[in-house]
Amino acid sequence: MRSSYGAIVNTNKKEIMVSIDRVYQKVLALANKEQRGYITPQEFNLFADIAQLDIFEQYFHDLDRVRRRPGNDYVDIAELIEEKIARFEIYNQEVGLLNSYGDVNLSNSAPDLHKLTMVTIDTPAAGNLRIAEKVSHKETRSSYANSPLIKNAELAGITARYTLSQTGDANRLKVWPWSSDAEIRISYIKKPTSPNWTYFVSASGAALYNPDALDHKNFLLHPSEENTLVIKILQLAGISIKDYQLAGAAAQQESKKTQQENQ
């Protein structure tokens, strides 16, 4: 299957993730070198979550930058980024209509949504499947009800995202046309779940890794990001333990890596 970002992905294959224990052990080994300090599991989990989100968000900026470059010299880089993003894509998830006005509450049906990529409106009785065109919510207000845009939606289908002002945090989707038998499906990029290095405390008071804990979570990023995670976590840890030399060294490693990727 080809993802909405262009990468070809195998939806039947279990994704290989980055081991959170491998990253933690690397971080500890580097941070403790020359007695630079100990990073507790609680600190590590906090830094790990920040680092994963930072890398994830950077994918979209990097892809946009690469796509803006002239020529075809950067096609391979774009495909690699697309492959990394494709790990977070959810396809054709059915969402129910919230009311008789064509509203869908995405906060309930897709709480992990980061970026909406496609909306389809399927009316089986009419044998009609539409891929909805994205428009601004302003274009769908009541004053536009008789506009060519809304009238054309009866044939083509449109969708718009908005937030209810009275609740502030309700992430809504409005679709046209709608009916009681319409099936609304969305494809989207999900946010990565927070990694969690789980452990139990030994009789000596040491934190020992426990991968069998129910809340254990590896990183969801592409395996190639393991060293980048280590570097970013070291940056955060270096600041936390006021070891600016460690943070500076980690920053230099990341800068070198970025220069190599952009050559």
SSE map:
Elements: H1 20-32, H2 41-68, H3 75-86, E1 89-95, E2 103-105, H4 106-109, E3 113-123, E4 128-131, E5 133-134, H5 148-156, E6 158-163, E7 171-176, E8 183-190, E9 199-201, E10 207-209, H6 226-240, H7 244-261
Primary descriptors:
four-stranded mixed beta sheet, alpha+beta, 7 helices, 263 residues, 38% helix, four-stranded antiparallel beta sheet
Structure description:
The protein has 263 residues and is an alpha+beta fold. 38% of the residues lie in helices and 20% in strands. It is built from seven helices and ten strands. The longest helix is centred in the first third of the chain and has 28 residues, at 41-68. It is globular, with a radius of gyration of 23 Å.
Largest sheet: 4 strands, antiparallel
> What share of residues is helical?
25-40%
Parts with pLDDT < 50 across at least 5 consecutive residues: 7-13
**β-sheet strand percentage:** 15-25%
Return the string of H and E elements.
HHHEEHEEEHEEEEEHH
Distance between the termini: 30 Å
As laid out across the biggest beta sheet, the strand order is 1-8-3-4
Summed up, the helix count is 7
The protein's oligomeric status is single chain
* Structural class by secondary-structure content: alpha+beta
Q: How many E-type strands?
A: 10
Shape: globular
Round the Cα radius of gyration to an integer and report it: 23 Å
Task: Provide the residue-averaged pLDDT.
Answer: 77
